[in-house]
Amino acid sequence: MAEVVAGTLIPDLPQVEISLASYPGLEAWADRVRSRPSWQQIHPTLEEFDHFKRHLGVAVKVWQKRRRQRLQALQAST
C-alpha cells in the first residue's frame, strides 16, 4: 500500500525541482517505478504535467487571495 501512495508522488519530485540525489536508495526505487510499463501507461506527459502545475499555481493564488480577504474581514470586525 505504501508503494502505491509514494509511487504517485516521489518519482515526480525532480520535475518540481526537488532532488532525490541526497537519498540514493529512494532515487533508485523511483527509477525502478518509472521503468515499469504500468507507470509509463498512466504517467502524464511533460505537457500534461506542465498544464497541471499551471492550474495548481492558479489555485494557490486564488486560495491566498481568499485567505487574505477573510483575514481582513476578521480584522475589520474586531
Describe this structure in words.
- This protein is mainly α.
- It is built from four helices and no strands.
Question: Percent helix among the residues?
Answer: over 70%
Instruction: Pick out the low-confidence regions.
Output: none
Count of individual helical segments: 4
Largest sheet: none
Portion in beta strands = under 5%
State the distance separating the first and last CA atoms: 48 Å
Shape field:
elongated
Global structural class? mainly alpha
How confident is the prediction overall: mean pLDDT?
88
Notable characteristics:
78 residues, mainly alpha, 2 domains, 4 helices, 0% strand
Chain-wise SSE layout:
Blueprint: H1 2-7, H2 24-35, H3 37-42, H4 46-77
Q: What is the gist of this entry?
A:
The protein is mainly α and 78 residues long.
